[in-house]
């Protein structure tokens, strides 16, 4: 009987953990200074951290186009 209860407990914990991951993390994305001719990664990350408390990286929207500063933060 104890083995069955323990098994049910483990299955329940697995289901709860999967449901929590499926809800999403609620992150938003914004392009900082889209008119800039290029992306300075240091300035990009500094602006993202100070304004949005997020993580930033330089990403090109199309092949051959200059990269933009993309900031991802909690909504």
TrEMBL record:
Source species: Arabidopsis thaliana
UniProt GO BP: defense response to fungus; killing of cells of another organism
Name of the protein this chain belongs to: Uncharacterized protein
Key words, A-Z: Antimicrobial, Disulfide bond, Fungicide, Plant defense, Secreted, Signal
Protein family membership: Belongs to the DEFL family.
GO cellular component: extracellular region
Any one Pfam family match given in the protein's UniProt record, by short name: SLR1-BP
UniProt key word Signal: yes
InterPro entries linked to this entry: DEFL (IPR010851)
Major location category of this protein: secreted
Localization: Secreted
